[in-house]
Amino acid sequence: MDHYEALYREYNRLLEEDIGIAVPASTSVRVIPRKGNMVVYAIQRKLPSASICNAVIRRLDDESAVALVLRILAETEHVWRFNASGGPVTIGFDGQISNWALRNYGGGEPPAIDSGTELFYFDTSTPLITRHGIEELNPDLFLRSAPSFLLWLIKWFFLKGVMTRYYDPHLITVDLIANFYKEQRPELIPALVESVNRFFTADARACAIRPVTVEEVRSYYREDAMIWRLFLALRKFDRFLHERVLHKPYVFILPGTIRR
């Protein structure tokens, strides 16, 4: 736990001080029960729910929603440039729409989106950091909530791919655009692909990112949605085994119904 907490603090510091991406004020707290597992909570300053960008895009017209994605990519490019600078440290980054919030917006009239729009990035509880090419975060942390009967399969087939994709600018962007299926705005995807590819060849030209295609986004989302549906179903089965068969507590909180 000491190692995780140190990584969590370093990740937030790197983002804010070295890279220049604003993150909410945060800390970590340990809960040590008399019985059971110690728990470490990553705590952040609460942001208004209306400011979270997957809620914001439901209030924006098409042009403004595309502008918001380009604004997010402009921030994310700071991470890519940091990683490409040749230093000993690189960081993984999950740039999907629901990990960003508008600063100084609490709801009301849809906000104007332009190059001066200020953002918070708040998905910092999975501090992916490599040092001299070696991942600092223990990958077994990803497996704590996985059904025990699937650990070998997940470790073999999926874990490396899941962790490494957050270091790949192309895949980060594909994932960001694919979010618009889940967020019920799939009609924007062709315009997003076109705008993102222009961004790659202009503002982010130095990053040398290969173009995105609509078909690639569609295929990625279908595969990703299928994997997470299956994983959630297996976790529910694991909860049933713990509570009804083994009569042991199931210590993880499962998400509710996710509309896709």
Average pLDDT number: 89
Low-pLDDT segments, ≥5 res? none
**Annotation field: number of helices:** 8
Structural class: mainly alpha
How many distinct folded domains? 1
Strand order of the largest sheet: 3-6-7
C-alpha geometry: globular
Order of helices and strands: HEEHHEEEEEHHHHH
* Rg from alpha-carbon coordinates: 19 Å
The description of the largest β-sheet is: 3 strands, antiparallel
- The fraction of residues in strands falls at 5-15%
Total number of strands: 7
**Into which percent range does the helicity of residues fall?**
40-55%
Q: Between the first and last Cα atoms, what is the distance in angstroms? A: 35 Å
Describe this structure in words.
This protein has 260 residues and is mainly α. The chain has one domain. It is 45% helix and 10% strand. It is built from eight helices and seven strands. It has a three-stranded antiparallel beta sheet with strand order 3-6-7. Strand 6 and strand 7 form a beta hairpin. Helix 3 runs antiparallel to helix 6, helix 6 packs antiparallel against helix 7 and helix 6 crosses helix 8. It is globular, with a radius of gyration of 19 Å. The relative contact order is 0.13.
